[in-house]
């Protein structure tokens, strides 16, 4: 499912296993996980409930720098982020912004077409591996 550049893939495993697989796939692809934000844990600290909702922030300078050289404003969307979340039905999802859509958003789609396409292909492969049975 894709809405305004946001790609969401249903996972065949639970949230924690999806996160662990995603981390492993990112590392195998030469990407660094800079941060992990557990929104559900944050909600619990203030006495609120939230289904599993975790953001991973990741990337590498080799992929992101050419985009920022073309338009520094894309730095607001980089490093890349992935969201692993569980819906009300108990299904787990992996969501991310398509790098090609981000390039378009910042007006650099034509000049960064190959870089963005390569990043999109890599993220699709990482995502599919993370959500597979």
Automatic annotation (TrEMBL):
Q: Which PANTHER family match?
A: INNER MEMBRANE OR EXPORTED (PTHR38342:SF2), SLR5037 PROTEIN (PTHR38342)
Organism in which the protein naturally occurs: Bradyrhizobium jicamae
Species classification: Bacteria, Pseudomonadati, Pseudomonadota, Alphaproteobacteria, Hyphomicrobiales
Q: Which residues form the DUF302 domain?
A: 37-99
Q: Supply the Gene3D superfamilies for this chain.
A: TT1751-like domain
Q: Output the superkingdom of the source species.
A: Bacteria
Task: Tell me the Pfam families matching this sequence.
Answer: DUF302
Q: What is this protein called?
A: DUF302 domain-containing protein
